[in-house]
Amino acid sequence: xxxxxxxxxxxxxxxxxxxxxxxxxxxxxxxxxxxxxxxxxxxxxxxxxxxxxxxxxxxxxxxxxxxxxxxxxxxxxxxxxxxxxxxxxxxxxxxxxxxxxxxxxxxxxxxxxxxxxxxxxxxxxxxxxxxxxxxxxxxxxxxxxxxxxxxxxxxxxxxxxxxxxxxxxxxxxx
Length: 174
Known about the structure:
By secondary structure, the protein is an alpha+beta fold. The chain has one domain: Aminopeptidase, CATH 3.40.630. It has helices spanning 15-31, 44-52, 111-125, 140-148, and strands at residues 5-9, 56-61, 64-73, 83-84, 95-102, 130-135, 152-158, 165-172. An 8-stranded mixed β-sheet has the order 1-2-3-5-6-8-7-4, sandwiched between helices. The two termini are 27 Å apart. The model has no long low-confidence stretch (mean pLDDT 93). It comes from Weissella soli. GO terms for molecular function: acyltransferase activity, transferring groups other than amino-acyl groups. This is RimJ/RimL family protein N-acetyltransferase. Keywords: Transferase.
């Protein structure tokens, strides 16, 4: 891709664009039979909280905001219990990737995959050794991105908020 893909910390000035991106992603997910994001989650409060905690990021393509994600320092209560096992090399210190979405009009350009590599570099820069992510069992596009980024499937976790199962993945960084 000849275009420049970057990430930066999100600001409150980005919130309208973030919500547009998430609304489009939610609509597409539901149209594909993926109930992962309900009507209320993730919402304005979730992204404002991410921004306040300095864990919210936007993805830019040539300076235009085209995506969003949260990079959250563990522990994450959703990952405390797993049907399966986290990778043996895990020391329990990790960063979790949540609420990742790309503008539906920009999907198919490799933005999510490229962003996963940028996140990995960011985590390594701050001396992180492991990343974790989860997704719904019917979210095949995200599963492909996760696997392409080199994550290993570890088992099933259940979301604390509503008990729904998610496929859990991790990647140990060297």
